[in-house]
Amino acid sequence: MIKAVAKYLFLGLMPMAFGEAIILAPSAQAGETCNYINRNLWMAQAYQNANQVWVSEGWWVIEPGECVSYADNVSTFFKIAEDSIPSRPKIENSKTKALCVINDRFTVFQADNPTACDGSLETFVGFDSTKELLKD
Q1: Fewer CB within 10 Å of terminal CB in the chain, N or C?
Q2: How far apart are CA 107 and CA 41, in angstroms?
């Protein structure tokens, strides 16, 4: 009798477990960028927070042959060295925004405000679920 009750209890809880897995699914992936340049890429990203304030952050290293995926509300900027920016392919429906970057590790709030930037404003790109290949 106890085994039968346990079996039905288990079967009754299974839909709840699967339902939570569906409800708690991760946010949609918007973009992926792959480094096909023979040098490390440095990545900065930006997004609007819950208060609609632009926040930019950096730097993360993407090694040659490595790809990085990011969420649907992220715009990105890449550099190879301090003064070297890789050319990015033209992607339909992409959006550009001038946002703040700094040479060291950084997080900048109000990144679209030139007076809040202690570095330089650079062009960040955001796009739909597209795979971007950066090549020499």
Answers
A1: N
A2: 19
Q: How confident is the model at residue 81 (pLDDT cuts 50, 70, 90)?
A: confident
Cβ–Cβ under 8 Å, residues 133 and 102: no
SS3 category, 88? coil
Structure tokens, 126: 């955001």
- Rounded-to-integer distance, Cα 125 and Cα 132, Å: 11
Look at residue 17 in the predicted model and tell me its pLDDT.
43
Tokens coding 29: 């992936």
CB neighbour class for 102 (10 Å; exposed up to 12, middle 13-18, buried from 19): middle
Q: Please give the average per-residue pLDDT across 15-36, as a whole number.
A: 57
Contact 108, 116 (CB under 8 A): yes
Placement of tokens 């590790």 in the chain: 105
Q: Which of 35, 48, 53 is nearest to 74 (CA)?
A: 48
